[in-house]
Amino acid sequence: MSTQPIATPAVKSAPPQGLHSTLKQFLLDNMVTTLFLIICALGLWVSGLPLTFVISDLIHRISRNGVLILALLIPVMAGMGLNFAITLGAMAGQLAILMVVHWGIGGVPGVALAAVLSIPMAVLFGILIGKLLNKTRGQEMITSMITGMFASGLYMLLLMVMVGSAVIPIVNPEILLGTGVGVKDTVDLAIVSRAIDNLWSVSLPITGLASAALMLLYYGSKLLAKQTTGPAQARRSGIKLGLIAAVAIAAVSGWIMTTDSLLNMVTVPVATFALVALVAIFNLFIITTKIGQDFRAVGQDQHIAKVSGINVDRTRIIAMTISTVIAAWGQLLMLQNLGNLRTYGAHEAVGMFAIAALLIGGASVSRATVGQALIGMVLFHTMFLVSPQAGKALLGDAQLGEFFRAFVAYGVIAASLAMHAWKRTMATRKRLLS
Amino acid sequence: MGISDYVLELNNISKQYAGNRVLKNVTVKVKPGEIHAVLGENGAGKSTLMNILFGMSVIHTTGGFEGEIMMDGKPISITSPFDAMHLGIGMVHQEFMLIPGFTITENIKINREHTRHNLISRIGGPALKSLDMAKMNKEARQSLDRVGLNIDEWVKVAGLPVGYMQFVEIAREIDKTNIKVLVFDEPTAVLTESEAAKLLDVMRAIANSGIAILFITHRLDEVMSVADQITILRDGEHVRTLLPKETNTFHLAELMVGREVHVVDKGDRTKGSQEIALSIRGLRVLMPGEEVRHVDLDVREGEILGIGGLGGQGKIGIANGIMGLYPARGEVTIRGKKLALNDTRGAYAAGLAFVSEDRRGVGLLLDSSIETNIAFTAMQMRESFLWKLGPISQVNSRKIRVHALKMIKTLDIRCTGPTQLTRRLSGGNQQKVCVARALALDPTILLVSEPTRGIDVGAKKLVMDTLVKLNKELGMTIIMTSSELAELRSICDRIAIVCHGKIEGILAPTDSDVDFGLMMAGDYYKYRGKEA
Amino acid sequence: MEKLRTIVKEVGLPRIIIMAFLALLIVLAAAYRIPLVPLLGAVMTRTLINGLFVLAMLPAIVSGIGPNFGLPLGILAGLIGLLLAVEWNLTGFTAIFVAMLTSTPLAIVVGAAYGWLLNKVKGSEMMVATYVGFSFVSLMNIGWTLLPYRSPVLRWPIGRGLRVTITVADFFQGVLDGFWDFSVGGFVIPTGLILAFLIPCGIVWLFMRSKTGLAMKAVGDSRQFAEASGLNVDRYRILGAVLSTVIGAIGIVVFSQSFGFIQLYEAPMFMGFAAVAAILIGGASVRRASISNVIVGAILMQALLVIALPVAGKIIVGGIGGVAEITRIIVSNGIILYALAQVGGGD
After folding, report:
1. Residues B246-256: pLDDT tens digits?
2. Whole-Å CA distances, A284 to A181, A221, A229, A377
3. Any chain A CB within 8 A of the CB of B113?
4. Which domain holds residue C74?
5. What global pTM score does this model have?
6. A304–B99 C-beta distance less than 8 A
7. Which domains does chain B carry?
């Protein structure tokens, strides 16, 4: 229609930035992460732990924690905050693996069966907690936290009192206590230990080269792809960073291969990482789908979403269910790597550690990305690893190092929760006054 | 019956909320492609009518409505906003329904996204279909062009100036291809003059493209300039529907406001009391939705001053600002002494008392007893109803009980006793408790906001009579803020009308309906010139 | 039938379930001929020594900052006071009073800062309180290792830091318990303990009837109403936090003297949850609470835990090791979930 277009100010995108200033801006925006980067670097140096050991251990930690931390992303997107109830998913996974071990099915088929078995349980838990969270809108995080603890109690009731008794009459001296009732405190998972890890083990430098090649392919194709609409500048520098990182990784890997370094002996459980990558890709994929858009709409404004016809309650339940199922599988990967199950404790710290790691990576209660999950994991687990030795070196007491890392985990969560809540009250006040 | 002349018909619509009739047999017929203005004061029934048209749940959970809605000659049933959308009815709301973190395209296409199948969705179901952002951006661009908004469609809504947001809302509605009727609810309220002019142009353009527009407003000028037909509602009733050429702004103003007024005889009053009890200069109050921009006002000792005006114009903000409930700036003097603003305690200390327009949220502790509520503010501000021993205090239950019983009798509060929870009382009785609480402070100046909102007729009369009695017998100065012009005209000595956050003028209760109508619409000085 | 339904609705289904469960346990206990009198004694003692923690929840809920999941902060303050008493080799009543006197100012300061923080995070108090509590318990782990206490009773003989559990039997165990106690047919009534619980309850009750107390209650009931009545909402919330923290500090002193041990490190971590659960069982909600909720809740909670154990021992074949723990976890967290679901909707 021939109306005079409304005069618009110049579209306010940032002025084109060089690579250097992008990096500087990036570090400033992510103060928490930067701080942890420094702490980890210092800790590594002070602890005196051999690099090879650190890298090798880190690889295993990331491979076994990867999927678990990714389970947190969708609930954040859907506005349900940090899902402290991935404990329930972990419990589903644990029950599945106990069944598999009881029936003596080992190796990859065992883990696969456990994955399948955990689905109905995780889906049920997910729906239940989703419904509960719909009843406690505005207090989702404390509810998910307490639900995790409550479910823990039920889980204990099941495994400590019911299994082996008249209620669930199974006989298995390997899993059950001497009295015949109650599952042991620690169950050996030898038959499925490292099942996925061992599927495909590749040395570190070769993995590095392969990943670099993949990254070059990915970012290269993005560079050559036709320009879609959007803030072009940010995208360009993102691609540039990706390409540079790929080349760096290739260079380092190649260099390692030429030297005698022990790093050549470090192996990477590629199959496990492939699964982690799959879940990461799934998360990225979901954002581009209809349900992902619904998650985002509900996460930002439930009222508007509802008025626009989106079934808010159902969307939230779906988000929790997906999260719980992913958490179940994540716990399976964790257990197959560890090789044993601390029946009554394995699931408890799971939620907290994953959340702390995610927050350290720069995520917040309302925003979490795959990149932040990855960075957070590396930093968190490095800190976790070096703390005792660093404590011993600095203060003469490894205990102190352990206390320190626990304090950091709790503290990061407390600080993040407080910041988020404070920002929210500020925003409401600003909105009212505008 | 054949093809109807009208795209939308609201025939004989009636609605009551718990015995209160808010719409009585209202009929509005809209022709395709016409701009049909709906004019009326607050409480005239405009919002209720729109809620019915949109199938809002508040209608269904309170007993539904009577009457019939027809589109293109066929009766339709609307049970949710989604139904309305499917039938081709769109609405541009007053408070924007835009998600700040989404782009303009995402907002325009919310829950109507274009999707394509991908590998996973063929197994997992339609929810997993990929979003076709390219197609959506293209269509959004077209809709933006139609409203003349020259901004990139992939920009996030957060940070857009308010005026632009209005246009994005419009773009969202006309993007729905099946749109036949578009409702604009006070669209120019937040726009600058030039933006408002552009908006009217866009409205014209949209109407010319065949979409009918229901234009809810109180701005008489806009109505005269752009409407094809004008319907006036008053007190839930249909007053008149006319063509612009049959009327003018004065006429419209009168129709909007005119009704029978019974001025209460307040006996022999020394109209000559010229002493100023409360003086306001340059008052500015940041109350969301009722912003006060600049108010100068003098309140005479012993008078009942009314403050009226349409909703959202700022009248409610004045009392709230003086009492320190919302950030305020300016000068307020009480009998010569300056009152510190933003200090609720100070306001009480200066002899003011306040009955809020928000009875349930601000005026009452719903889960506490009547007697606790009545005694509370006086206890905290004046240390009444307490046993005191140095810093230690204990509540004096007996005194509270006695006082409550007295108030229950005086104000005729219908309840099971002083210990009943105020939550259980009817609106009118809750209001009486609020008044009692203010009176327990022995104020010299009483500020009352919307005293009869949502109260049944009998209780209305009692509240009004109480105010008159306080004024006559105790000589209490009362400032009464109300949307109900008739009530203001019945008991006030003078009535100040607020428009756009300023005092448009002060009228006597006996002044003409036209004058009141013009003042409320903000057009008084435009048409009457500056009064001496 | 209608009346029954109203009662069920008002009392709440979970509470009815819990009370029915308790009744069942008592019946079973009698059936299995488990001697009830010593059980009763245990219930009473445990109620009295845990009671103050439950009382600490009251000012917090009433002032609107919600159930005080951050109770560990007050407990830590109290522990520091207790350690000082042991460090200075004090015994008997002196020890107790010194412990209380030194921990109170610390608790006030901590409580005020805590209240200030909660004011900044209105709407998310419960979550922030929980993790602030956890963080400080964790921080104090480092503290216990580094603080310069010297008494050999407190420190590990070799290595660094304070012991995890410190025996105070020789110092002041049972001081309050034994005060003015008397026997009634073989059953000992610990008057000192009763006073230690009831006197604070009385003080709080009187406080809630004072001008300040009523103001605090209004602040918790309706922030807008309170502001419109001229009250400074933030200040009353801080007052609620301070009172809660101080009562928590005094609570751990009473608890430890009866228990006979000072427990450091991880012990305080989940003490907030137990207290929250108890007051909720007593009929409080996350926004309203009264003294009767405190007393009833404290009794019910302990009764449940104390009687469950021997009954479980008779019923469940095999180990009953974790049964008390399981019951505690399910009941506590269950009632908290119920209370949270009542609020629902959100503001």
Report:
1. 888 888 888 88
2. 45, 17, 19, 18
3. yes
4. 50-288
5. 0.89
6. yes
7. 8-247 (3.40.50.300), 285-351+443-532 (3.40.50.300), 360-441 (no CATH)
